[in-house]
Amino acid sequence: MSIDQQLSPSPVLERSTRRVEELRGDVLARASRVTPDGPAPVRRPTRRRVLAVGLVAAAAAGALVVGPSLLPAEDSGRPNPLAAVAAAAEGTDRGPLATGEVVLRVERLRQTASTPNLRIDRRTETWVLPDGRFYERSTDLRPGTDPEDRVFTYASDPMNPLRTPVAVAELPTDPDALVRRVAQVPPGAEVDDAARRRAAEALVGVLSDGYAPSDVYATALTALGSVPGVRVRHDAAAGETTVSHWMQSKRGDETLTFRDRDGALVRLEASTTQDGGAQQVSRFSVRRVDAVPAEVRRAAERQAEEQQR
Q1: Is the pLDDT of residue 267 over 90?
Q2: Rg of the chain in Å (alpha carbons)
Q3: Is 15 exposed, middle or buried (0-12, 13-18, 19+ CB in 10 A)?
Q4: Contact 57, 86 (CB under 8 A)
Q5: What is the spatial distance between Cα 284 and Cα 109, in angstroms, rounded to a whole number?
Q6: Is the separation of the CB atoms in 268 and 285 below 8 Å?
Q7: How many CB atoms lie within 10 A of CB 196?
Q8: In which region does residue 119 sit, left (phi positive, over 0), alpha (psi from -120 to 50) or beta (all else)?
Q9: Which residues contact 36 (CB under 8 A, 6 or more apart)?
Q10: pLDDT for 77
Q11: Helix axes 47-64 and 83-90, enclosed angle (nearest 10)
Q12: Does residue 51 register a pLDDT over 90?
């Protein structure tokens, strides 16, 4: 199953799509009544109202703009540019990772460098279980690599307790509360722009791990759209929305592409500069599958036995 097949259309999604069209017509009908004085003072709405307001604005944008458009998320005069995608994602009603389900993440990492021993070309497949344990198979794709040393497979104990499927499913479903949690904002302190910037990489992790239920996933999208400096590109022709942000810790850009009709993450790419001037480019995809392949389990068991000898 490809990543394009991970979320099949549902009656809820079809109703959401029809609602977008209705909202688009409604916004166009009311466009003449918009005054030049700017928006009235805004009281903080609930998360569902944030999504609904953004969906109205996005419907108008989709009707009035032809081709790709670039919306800076930090512009306070605009609605959250990811609200429509978040609303579509929430409409999929995807639940937490269930017993027996597995998340498969596939990454292709290339690193170019003038020094041969710094060059990398590696494909890594990671199967994550509901309890946080995971299997990983890494394949070295550089020419001339010894076939016996090319593939390394292992099994691991649960990952970071804050990133297990159970922990992610229990994250807040209010955007500010989610930013406060992942950016570790002290109780009583304001969720300011600095906190949102700190939260960006963690929010990308929630979106790309592949096991967030739809309400948490939609909240992470909404929160990411509020991060200052995040660049959002809507491509109506492709039916996709691309989000880019600067990763301070990795000194590079990270770009995520979401499918507009259901909010699914289609691909993730990162470009970073490493020590010594080496350039890294990573491409990433994620989907839910039925099980860890038997050959991966056996290979991990063999390598665990060899390490114990």
Answers
A1: no
A2: 21
A3: exposed
A4: no
A5: 9
A6: yes
A7: 24
A8: beta
A9: none
A10: 52
A11: 120
A12: no
Residue 108 CA neighbour count, 13 Å, CB half: 6
Residue 153 CB neighbours (<10 A): 20
Q: Which residue has the higher pLDDT, 237 or 158?
A: 237
Tell me the whole-structure pTM to 2 decimals.
0.69
Full DSSP string of the chain: --GGGSS---HHHHHHHHHHHHHHHHHHHHGGG--TT-PPP-----HHHHHHHHHHHHHHHHHH--S-EEEETT-TTS--TTHHHHHHHHTT---SPPTT-EEEEEEEEEEE-SSGGG-EEEEEEEEE-TTS-EEEEEEE-STT--HHHHEEEEEES---TTSSHHHHHTS-SSHHHHHHHHTTPPTT----HHHHHHHHHHHHHHHHSS---HHHHHHHHHHHHTSTT-EEEEETTTTEEEEEEEETTTTEEEEEEEETTT--EEEEEEEEE-GGG-EEEEEEEEEEES---HHHHHHHHHHHHHHH-
In whole angstroms, give the CA distance from residue 245 to residue 30: 34
CA-to-CA separations, 269 to 76, 107, 266, 281, 291, in angstroms, rounded: 27, 9, 10, 7, 26
Determine phi and psi for 25, rounding to 5 degrees: -65, -40
- Confirm if 245 and 106 have CB atoms less than 8 A apart: no
Q: Which residues contact 187 (CB under 8 A, 6 or more apart)?
A: none
Both tokens of 100, joined, read 């027996």
